[in-house]
Specification:
The structure is a homodimer of 212-residue chains. Helices cover 69% and strands 0% of the residues of chain A. With 212 residues, chain A is mainly α. At the A-B interface, helix 1, helix 6, helix 7, helix 8 and helix 9 of A face helix 1, helix 6, helix 7, helix 8 and helix 9 of B. The structure holds a DNA duplex (30 and 30 nucleotides).
DNA sequence: GATGGGAATGAGTCTCGATTCATTCTTGGC
DNA sequence: GCCAAGAATGAATCGAGACTCATTCCCATC
């Protein structure tokens, strides 16, 4: 809050910069990217239309920035925690937890992620795909390590497992977002990983693992 | 293909009607709904812009029709097969298989489903959510039956399981769609259901099922 | 060959919205 | 108090695209 800090009003996250970002996430979550005129974002942020362009190159740029920032936080949080969290199972659970928590942290952002990130619009597709790949990569590594350590079966592709895990969590999140239901991120994460590791089959009926 | 069939040119699926639908799916898969001018769809279908409006009420209406039709086929196919398919596990596997097959059946339609159906645009959201609910419902029923018959664990919510299964499959499909990779629907379905039923944990490491 | 009616056309209308930029406001230094 | 420089404004520009409708085409019937 010193005078020095305030010296980067345009290129860095100043006051209005953040207000515009937040407003954009709100409006886009409500109406969708293509139904959100810049003028609506400006109004919500309490600035003039033109002001937006002092802080962002274009409408695209706002959305890109919002998504990048969110993913950035996600990665950082996971990486930091991993330093003190060894077990493969625990790591998977932590990823699931942080992923599921996003709903509670910022509901609008969660909506935006579920709705706009799938867009085929090239400018979204390119970088959102990049983020997904990184996420999946992270999970695959954990799975592979678990396989090497003998914790996980080796007859299932780590890629398939990673996608299954991501998809399962993402869908739970998505359904919560759309129905507006809340949930306990920690408990849900535990449940998902439980299913992923142990399956839903009862001991009695498990007849397929023999072909390992 | 008889002359009689061709007698419903406007209200039913006549020649141009189908051509417009197909063209729309193609174009929208390539460019996204909001970046697909009606004129582009018309050109692809080889008709004039105005002709579109002889067969569809609006641009929205085309997309809605395409999605509804696809889901309709899906449900019908599953329902029919279920008449001769008893086991809960086999039924889940069949659902997974048909779901995964959609990529092979019509790649463009699969892309469209993955990208446009999540749209927050109200007109899409309302009915696509409805379809999702129906799908999940179907899976839940199978799961519940499996639980009653003692095939599946009873300490996991059928809703959570259904979402996990749907999400896992959908994500695999999605990843295939975006990377352009092909896969064997039947084999992949078996793998997913294998993971869902048996989990990825090895016997040695399974330490959580005791709390049943 | 003429004719009536439905199908098809595509140029034109009308609205909306991203971006620009001439103008106005603010503020820190004198 | 005055001034210059940066920040902010919002009216105006400009293009895009959904939809309309006056006109033309097609063809079955006579």
């Amino acid at each position: 809050m010193t005078e020095v800090e305030k010296a980067a009003p345009i290129s860095g996250p100043g006051d209005k910069y953040q207000r515009i970002l937040d407003a954009a996430v709100e409006v886009i979550a409500e109406r969708g990217y293509f139904n959100s005129p810049v003028s609506a974002i400006a109004k919500r942020a309490g600035v003039a239309d033109g002001t937006i362009y002092l802080y962002f190159k274009s409408k695209d740029d706002i959305l890109r920035t919002a998504i990048d920032t969110t993913f950035g936080r996600f990665y950082k949080q996971v990486e930091e925690r991993f330093r003190n969290l060894e077990g493969a199972r625990e790591q998977l659970e932590y990823i699931a937890e942080v992923h599921l928590e996003s709903h509670g942290v910022n509901r609008n952002m969660a909506i935006l992620m579920q709705t706009e990130m799938r867009q085929s619009a090239k400018f979204i597709a390119e970088f959102s795909h990049h983020h997904l790949v990184k996420y999946i990569q992270m999970v695959r590594e954990v799975v592979r390590r678990g396989q090497q350590e003998g914790l996980f079966r080796q007859d299932v592709s780590d890629g398939v497992v990673a996608h299954c895990m991501f998809g399962a969590i993402d869908e739970l999140l998505s359904s919560a977002v759309f129905t507006g239901r809340a949930y306990d991120a920690k408990a849900t994460a535990r449940q998902v990983i439980d299913v992923l590791l142990n399956g839903i089959g009862t001991r009695a009926s498990m007849g397929r693992s023999e072909n390992v």
